[in-house]
Write a structure and sequence with these properties.
Length: about 270
Amino acid sequence: MTKFKWSHLYLVVMFTILYMPIFYLIYYSFNAGGSMNGFTGFTWEHYQTLFADTRLMIFIVNTFIVALLSGLIATAIGTFGAIAIYYMRKHKQQTVLLNLNNILMVTPDVMMGASFLILFSVLIPIKLGFFSVLMAHVAFNIPIVVLMVLPRLYEMNDTMITAAQDLGANHRQIMSRVILPSIATGIFAGFFMAFTYSLDDFAVTFFVTGNGFSTLSVEIYSRARQGIDLEINALSTLMFVMSFILVMGYYSLQSRERKQKALLAKNQKGVA
């Protein structure tokens, strides 16, 4: 019992430390005083200023376009990459590719950003801007998608593929009607993770942005260096609410999938 209570206390302290700065920021986004030195009254002024800031709105649109496109492209490449790794006949090659994929996951963002900068300015000279940011985001999102999709492939029932082959299905039909539906939740999870990683990336984007193109994280960094602006508090509040809604939506889908699997297993057991 004592251990149980201490574990709960630990969780309370941990989440308090993690979420207190966020709620502090949200609290002062409604401050009429214009600073975080003291709360003087409630106001929506900073949110009105946020939506009236055309420059910031452009960066928000840029950020979401890059996140959406990079998420879709990385999900497509990462999904078929995971399938290729899964069906590799040689275990040694499969292990090497997985290790190379995992190395990219733990590589420091600053190192990746510098590498992309060298790539785009020396090896493959292109003008830094939207295209360079998009390519960089696709590149660091692909390993994430692979890690999200592979577990679903290992959970997949391979007998369905054998049955489809026995019924005369070709490779395209097996892929579209058997494999992809079986790993759909992993694909969605990969897209969700790629989208969120791209949405808040700063280090890599900072190195490869240019030509008048920028994203929200880089703009917030440049503004924060000049001093705290409660307009940024308002923006951060909206981003936190959006992230909360996305996470809740994702886990509700996961919960529904688990219930469906449990119901299917129960029905199969009843038939047996």
